[in-house]
Amino acid sequence: MDKEKFYITTAIAYTSRKPHIGNTYEIILTDAIARFKREMGYDVFFLTGTDEHGQKIEEIATNEKVSCKEYVDKISGEIKTIWNLMNTSYDKFIRTTDDYHEKAVQNIFKKLYEQGDIYKDKYEGMYCVPCETFYTSSQLKDGKCPDCGRDVVEAQEEAYFFKMSKYQDRLMKHIEENPEFIMPESRRKEMVNNFLKPGLQDLCVSRSSFKWGVPVTFDDKHVIYVWIDALSNYITALGYDIDEQGDLYKKYWPADVHIIGKDILRFHTIYWPIILMALGQPLPKQIFGHPWLLNGTDKMSKSLGNVIYADDLVRHFGVDAVRYYVLREMPYSQDGTITYETIISRFNADLANTLGNLVNRCVAMSNKYFDSVITNSNVCEDIDDEVKAFCIETKNSVIEKMNEFKVADSLELIINLARRLNKYIDETAPWVLAKNEEKLPRLQTVLYNLLEGIRFVGVLLKPFMPETAENILKEISSDYNTVDTLDKFGYIKNGTKTGEAIPLFARIDEKKKLEEIEKEISENMKKTQKETKNEDKKEVTSTEITIDDFAKVELKVGRVVECQRVEGADKLLVSQIKIGDEVRQIVSGIAKHYSPEEMLNRKVVVVTNLKPVKLRGTLSQGMILAASDDDGNLSLITPDKDFEDGSLVR
Fold first, then answer.
1. List of E strands, 380-528
2. What is the pLDDT of residues 622-649, one digit of tens each?
3. Which residues are CB-contacts of 133 (< 8 A; sequence separation ≥ 6)?
4. What is the pLDDT of residues 135-159, one digit of tens each?
5. Residues 172, 419: Cα–Cα separation, whole Å
6. Which of 161, 172, 163 is closest to 134 using CA atoms?
7. Which of 413, 348, 327 is nearest to 87 (CA)?
8. Which of 231, 317, 374, 518 is deepest in the core (most CB within 10 A)?
9. How far apart are CA 66 and CA 78, in angstroms?
10. How far is Cα 9 from Cα 51, in angstroms, rounded to an integer?
């Protein structure tokens, strides 16, 4: 009999930078679900990969003086290395630079154009480079990108557009008839109320202002935009193309679930289904939008300096401990949090004290009291039935929760089973039974129940902590390691011998570990700062400009008429600077070198034709020039004669 298929995907990771633990959470979550489904007997196909085109990558590659392909090869390799480090069991890793994918995307775009779903026009609006998204002025939040909060730029260019509104009613009907299509429920309501009900605007699906993308075959000025390029990976990876549909596509599509972050929900629950409708293909059965993993209360960001990487965590705590933490701490629909302090606390409480201590104690007692031989003498008491029932109930509840993708709840159930077994040790006191020879048959039964209970724990942990589960089952020498052997209590055979009692998790000294981590972070920051300074020096000595380039920069003398600190920012001062007949507000990172009082009436040199930006929510209309040395000292550039404010510097 053929197994029931289960096709699961992550969002493909964008190759702009090395992924942090918040990005890595998604692959671990998806892996846990995929492993669970395999344990339940499904024929699973698990897809992940990398999204490798776009303006942002073109800009980064240009700045780093490498080709776009060289850059994405490097980052895609780093991503794959981290996915492998986290012991994820994906079946295929797709790259959007793969030849077969690019060819299929070109054919998809051409088909949609030829059938009238795509048309050429011009776009005028605000554009966010990091998000690669156009917005109208009304969609901006405080003048910034509504998704990432960064600055946007005015953009106008020729582009192809997809007729989203043509399929709006059909998509709304599908969502209403399939309430589990978008999960959790709160995400579904957000998509319907915020995007579908107000009405869909046509979607920009090509770009002509940069070249790093899949070319439009019939218009070489354009490259295909991310919405069609990246989203199509879910079917091209299975061998889909317009003229042919591979065996994997015929077998596994539609996807059973796309696992994605809540920040890209709109693209997957509105754009992607509509593209599939236009292609005449079935829609995925479900899109699950998981929450974010925050550093404390903040979203992880390099600019905030609060990024934590998976490989660093693994070095300090091990793969399975990291997998356990991120899966255990992420709620079903609310954001989770991670700090080194909370990792250590959870590690010690759940993994060292509860789980590790349970396995170590029980195997050690079996080895000590009965020379490692497991025997059930069936000298039973009422409390034994309670423990046996708890094991069966835990198995049933874990399956129920995992079918709803409630992974954190499932892990809590398993750890609760370990807690119950620890309590059973206290209730039966094996060390007391061992002192009375007449009680040895009862001791044999107690230890049998504990080891059989540990078998339940080990089998249930396999999707979440595969290496730990394997070590647990090895220590108790279990031959019954599949979910279908948890249908009843008592599979371990008499005469089975326990292995060596090897501690699974050694308790961490919190103070010592935090000091070690802080020292490492400090050393890495110093190294990064040194490398940055060296790169800056190279740029200064190697970059040449013409007199025409210099003439583009407008420099004037200004006088500081008012100055104060920017609230909540230790490094920033905001100055009101008189430049001729006008007063400019300028924010500068000089607060560690100059006080507001020292700035008053000071003459400074100002760049006056910079585009205004907001820093920490405060508008800055220019830049004050300063010199700095390798030690971080800073000195403002000032005229050595008393020039009038507004005087031109040239």
1. none
2. 999 998 876 668 889 988 888 888 888 8
3. 127, 145, 147
4. 877 778 888 888 777 788 887 889 9
5. 46
6. 161
7. 327
8. 231
9. 17
10. 14
